[in-house]
Design goal:
The two termini are about 55 Å apart. Strands 7-8-9-10-11-12-14-13 form an 8-stranded mixed beta sheet. A two-stranded antiparallel sheet has the order 1-2. It is α+β, with helices and mostly antiparallel strands.
Length: about 575
């Protein structure tokens, strides 16, 4: 029996010895992996209670390489509680203390700059904390200086912005006063213009009406003279035979005027009286018939056996013979006289096939299956017009004086309207600028109206603050809109840290392009990065003094080091 107890005692001693060998040694006078701020929870003279309060156990269970607490707090210095999110604290004296996952303890990789996470002897970790700390403090000092200088510039920006916004507000008030006066003046001159235009319009209308009456009288006279000329037997009726006697009524260019053609010209009847001729037939007949007494003689019939249309088709560039008596120049009395209104002059020459390309593809109107000659003649007779009429004569001196007065009034009114509209446009533009949120103290004012570029391997990106963002291929191509100014989109704690641009060019089968610009403190205004983290969504980084916050006094005077 004594021998059995001796064996059990020896085994127990070995177990205790083995457990003791797995517990990590203390580090810097406290349990390994425990932050100084939590040292009060680890008192070796008392039982240990899990930090979540779930259970209490003998202190010997702390760092015994067995996870007893659900929050892993009993194993701050081992990897035993990796599965429940245990954390190991790196003291990193001389640098910044950090927490690392418990799974990294004794994994053969030095995670803590002081090497405290690798204590099992498999690797030797050099303590680099003081060197890293010195570099970190140097960088922190540099950033602090940048922040200070940037903040000083931000203050200057704010003063400039506030001054400019006040100047804009003052200018708007001045322009609005001028606008009120300009509107009144424009209204006054509009009344004067309308007063000047009333007698001008009356006089011009009277002149035109008199001219129209004269024209109608002349036209009726020409029609009656033509009827008497065509009515060869003077019986007061224009007959089929009398139409057949005139070659100009040969529609199909067959060489004679058929009875059917003659009836067509007479509106389907065998004869017509003068009044019907004047009121109903003359407008059509005048397209081919030359008024007696004019310088243009009645066209002669073509030589028997010849077809002028076929000749033109065969040789369109050949000069066509002038018909006997056909005028080769515009009569002097039909030429435009000084002061006359422009009137259209339509040539009586035959269709020029050389000008086919200038006719806006009119030849497409011909039917492929129809007779070309017949269709040509239809087109020819439809487009043929009588001799050009006299243009409207010049206004009399009194009317011209009224026109001059009205012209002067119109010019003055137009100028007043332009001045009024220019003032309104200036006010609208200034109000648009004033309406942009330039920050609590207008510190973003210097960015307004400025554009900043960033170029990567493929594109040049451009951000025009409070306006738009865009991209353009480096090797040439059109610019693509990535969005126009929308709003400030930062968190509640720092609203002015993110710009949002929206409603850019639509992506194929996707949303409209948009972009966010994250601002950070810097001594210059510079677009420093661009990316497309999601399809059609772009992100940019922009440094500016306007984003620099006031330096913290505690940050300037206090340098934290874990002891």
């Amino acid at each position: 029996m004594a021998g059995l107890f001796a064996v059990v005692f020896a085994v127990s001693a070995l177990v205790v010895s083995a457990c003791a060998s797995t517990a990590p040694p203390d580090f810097n006078g406290r349990p390994r992996g425990v932050a100084k701020s939590k040292l009060g929870f680890y008192d070796s003279s008392k039982p240990f209670t899990c930090l979540d309060g779930s259970r209490t156990m003998p202190y010997a269970h702390v760092n015994d390489d067995f996870c007893d607490c659900q929050d892993g707090s009993d194993e701050p210095g081992t990897a035993a509680c990796s599965s429940v999110g245990g954390k190991f604290h790196c003291a990193n004296k001389g640098h910044k203390p950090i927490y690392i996952p418990a799974s990294r303890v004794n994994d053969g990789i030095c995670d803590c700059c002081d090497g405290s996470d690798e204590y099992d002897g498999r690797v030797q970790c050099e303590d680099t904390c003081r060197e890293l700390g010195a570099k970190a403090r140097e960088e922190a000092k540099r950033l602090s200086e940048v922040q200070l200088r940037g903040y000083q510039l931000r203050e200057e920006y704010g003063q400039q912005g506030q001054t400019k916004q006040q100047e804009r507000t003052t200018e708007v008030a001045s322009l609005e006063t001028g606008l009120t006066e300009a509107k009144a003046e424009a209204d006054r001159l509009k009344v004067l213009k309308e007063e000047a235009e009333a007698p001008e319009t009356e006089a011009k209308d009277a002149h035109k009406q008199a001219w129209e009456a004269t024209k109608i009288e002349k036209q009726r006279g020409a029609a009656e003279a033509s009827f008497r000329d065509l009515d060869s037997n003077a019986d007061g009726l224009l007959s089929v035979a009398e139409i057949q006697a005139r070659a100009e009524f040969d529609k199909d260019s067959s060489g004679d005027v058929s009875e059917e053609e003659a009836k067509e010209w007479l509106g389907g009847e065998t004869d017509r009286a003068m009044e019907y001729f004047v009121t109903d037939l003359w407008s059509n007949i005048s397209t081919v018939y030359v008024v007696p007494g004019s310088e243009e003689a009645t066209p002669q019939p073509p030589v028997e056996g010849e077809n002028p249309v076929e000749d033109m088709v065969a040789d369109p560039e050949a000069e066509q013979p002038t018909q006997p008596g056909e005028a080769e120049s515009i009569p002097a009395d039909l030429e435009q006289q000084p002061g006359q209104q422009d009137e259209p002059h339509v040539s009586h020459d035959v269709y020029d096939f050389d000008d086919a390309d200038d006719a806006d593809d009119d030849d497409d109107d011909y039917d492929d299956d129809g007779d070309f000659e017949e269709q040509y003649n239809e087109r020819h007779y439809e487009s043929h017009t009588p001799a050009a009429e006299e243009g409207m004569p010049e206004y009399d001196e009194a009317t011209q004086n009224l026109i001059a007065v009205a012209d002067s009034a119109r010019a003055a009114s137009t100028e007043a309207d332009k001045k009024r509209d220019d003032l309104q446009r200036q006010i609208d533009n200034l109000n648009k600028l004033i309406g942009v949120d330039l920050g609590p103290n207008s510190e973003f004012f210097p960015l307004q109206g400025q554009c900043y570029d960033f170029t990567d391997r493929e594109y040049t990106y451009s951000m025009c603050a409070f306006d738009r963002i865009s991209q353009k291929p480096k090797n040439g191509g059109s610019e693509t809109s990535l969005g126009t100014w929308g709003r400030w989109d930062g968190p509640d704690s720092n609203k002015y840290s993110v710009m949002k641009y929206e409603n850019g060019l639509n992506c194929w089968n996707g949303p409209n392009r948009s972009g966010t610009v994250t601002l950070r403190c810097g001594e210059t205004n510079e677009l420093v990065s661009a990316a497309e983290p999601n399809r059609c969504e772009y992100s940019f980084e922009f440094i500016t003094p306007a984003a620099c916050q006031a330096p913290s006094r505690s940050a300037e005077t206090h340098e934290h080091e874990e002891l």
